[in-house]
Amino acid sequence: MNAPRRLSTLLLGFMLAGCGTLSNVAPEAEVPQKAQRACGDPANRDIGQWLPAMVEEQSPGMVVGVIDARNQRHFWHFGVTDTEHRYPVNEHTLFAVGSLSKGMTAEAAAVLVAQGRLHWSDTLETLLPPSVALSRDAKKITLLQLVTHTSGLPRQNMDLPMLTAFIRYLGNGENFYSHLDSDDVVADLADFSKPGNAEPRYSNLGYAVLDYVLRYQTGQRADQLVQSLIFDPLGMHSSSFTPQKLKSYPLRAIGHAGSQPKFIPRGQVVPDWQFSGNMVGAGGLYTNTADLLTFAAVHLASTGDATLDKAIHDTMQTYYPRDKEAANIAWVTDTYGEQSITYQVGYIGGYSSYIGIDRANHFAVVVLQNSFTWQNNLGHSVLRQMLEEQRNAATCRVTTAA
Hints:
It comes from Buttiauxella brennerae ATCC 51605. Helices cover about 35% and strands about 10% of the residues. The protein has helices spanning about 5-15, 45-60, 100-115, 125, 135-140, 145, 160-170, 180, 205-220, 220-235, 280-285, 290-295, 305-315, 380-400; strands at about 60-65, 75-80, 95, 285, 325, 330-335, 340-350, 350-360, 365-370.
């Protein structure tokens, strides 16, 4: 590695150190306080108490959606789309959701596998055009490794142009992933050397390559595949990688600075990130809380479609087990005692997003914010609180029966 590239790698690694986890910065669940309330007193008020303070401190607006153990959906919303228009946010408000896009694209790939059109064991040597130069290690990367972040590919290209673009982003908030969005992304595979550490590594580069693979293998872009294989069958009519086509787009939540970009004041509007190539399926999705709860719901119960159910089953399997950030397909799983939380998080431009499920207890939570904040802990905490409340209710039933 030459000196400029080595310096770029070190600097980018340092500045993105907080972004290096498998789940794109995983939330930590706060241990919920045990509610001191009479049996039968509803716990739903807790979220209503938490959100106003969180909105004031972290984000102009926030929407939370929950599926409870009785399969009932609940929504809480506080704040506005932005300080200029001040449209109140609700479960139908569009947000950019960044890396939650990867979950949709990976699920579309899983449908293709369930249909027999692709196989998880397919390697890049067979998945990419013969004209693409591949190192010995790159040739062996499988489709499964791409979608589970276990290929060994880095988060993004580590070179001087990327470093320069990232430094500009810190001051202007502009998209710095133009290289990954272009077809030049596959050129990074020519000198790829797999790291000695086999642990999963979160990789935007890997998902950009996945987009390229899907387009080459099917003749359709990732967003087109997601539309036909996921959104249309599930009735997710407010989700799109081309949000300008949606009627709700003019009333969308506007992104604001938060934890990032470092040199833009917190709360200031930042530019939307636009993708048109291989990063569309990795980070280009706009959706709302209601649609994401619909997506979460099909991971809690059968859809009635055998192919889609097989795809969902594949995505929920653990391919790299560990207590925290166990690798599924796009999803990751954290274990807290007897509770397992399977989730995805997304950060892009001026937005933060979370979708999490507890399959054993039939819980799901979605949290969307129009501010970039690493303190994305509410989703995990709500799922922990829901289990605590369920246990409290069970104790109340036993006490009443006695």
